[in-house]
Specification:
There is one protein chain. The chain has 239 residues and is an alpha/beta fold. The chain has a single domain, classed as P-loop containing nucleotide triphosphate hydrolases (Rossmann fold, 3-Layer(aba) Sandwich). The protein is built from six helices and ten strands, in the order E-E-E-H-E-E-H-E-H-H-H-E-H-E-E-E. It has helices at residues 45-52, 75-85, 101-106, 116-129, 145-157, 175-190; strands spanning 3-14, 17-29, 34-38, 60-65, 68-69, 86-90, 163-167, 194-198, 210-215, 218-222. The strands form two sheets. It has a six-stranded mixed beta sheet, sandwiched between helices. It has a four-stranded antiparallel beta sheet with strand order 2-1-4-5. Helix 5 (145-157) packs parallel to helix 6. It binds adenosine-5'-diphosphate and magnesium ion (MG). Magnesium ion (MG) binds next to helix 1.
């Protein structure tokens, strides 16, 4: 198991009360799978993703990722682990507005030992594969939403982390761009990556090896939904 959660609970203070975002969650994710996580707004999807990503400490329970007990690591160990082992993709891209596409993609690599030269070559090759060769020196505001998300995908995948975590990555995209994003995530899985994607898009389920439903902080695993290999956006009412 590449990710393993045991009895994970997370609450947040709200006025004089606490809201339970994750309630005693147990979850195991196998390496090399593409998992869709879905559920209503406020059901705990982002909390779960950030908890797995080492960015949000649970109140109780353990989170093991690649055989590390994430929250037993020191803050700096956890940050280093995150930088080398995890890639993050967000709904609103999280690009730095005053940096170019290439600079955004290279940004997280500042502390790594690889030479700037080879980084830049890898970066340009990856951006070419994502159809962004003509955008290397553009700023995010000069890009379409789909191009922005492809830039964010390049940033998340340049170092080929074993795990990609994506929080509603197609929420701000049109259908064609969304399909392209799912194609890229699927490709990443095919190359051996493990991909966990939060999505409201039922059509994305056709890409998934497994669909996990979360309702009020509790998981419901549905083993009967499996990847069919068909194009997703033609099946948007299936489920
Ligand atoms: N930082 C926070 N402060 C207070 N409440 C929060 C915070 N983050 C999440 N919550 C609450 O936790 C619950 C789950 O939120 P979230 O994980 O963002 O849901 P989802 O991503 O499924 O929409 C919601 O009730 C939300 O209001
Ligand atoms: Mg969310």
């Amino acid at each position: 198991m590449i990710i393993q959660l045991r009895k994970v609970t997370r609450t947040f203070p709200v006025r004089n009360d606490r809201v339970t975002a994750l309630a005693d969650v147990n979850l195991e994710i196998e390496a090399g799978k593409l998992i869709c996580l879905c559920g209503p707004s406020g059901s705990g999807k982002s909390t779960l993703l950030f908890t797995m990503g080492g960015m949000l400490r649970p109140d109780s329970g353990t989170v093991r990722v690649l055989d590390r007990d994430l929250y037993a690591l020191s803050k700096s160990e956890r940050a280093a682990f995150r930088a080398s082992q995890l890639g993050f993709i967000f709904q609103d891209f999280h690009l730095v507005p005053y940096l170019t596409v290439r600079e955004n993609v290279l940004l997280p690599l500042g502390h790594l030992k690889k030479s700037a030269q080879s980084n830049q070559q890898d970066c340009d090759q990856l951006l070419a594969r994502l159809g962004l060769s003509h955008r290397l020196d553009h700023k995010p505001r000069q890009l379409s939403a789909g191009e922005r998300q492809r830039t964010a995908i390049a940033r998340a995948t340049l170092l080929k982390p074993p795990i990609l975590l994506a929080d509603e990555p197609t929420g701000n995209l049109d259908e064609d761009s969304a399909e392209e994003v799912y194609r890229l995530l699927t490709e990443y899985r095919e190359q051996g990556g493990t991909v966990l994607v939060v999505t409201h898009t039922r059509s994305a389920w056709t890409y998934a090896d497994q669909v996990i439903q979360i309702v009020e902080g509790q998981l419901q695993v549905n083993p009967s939904v499996h990847r069919t290999g068909t194009s997703p956006l033609r099946h948007s009412t299936e489920g």
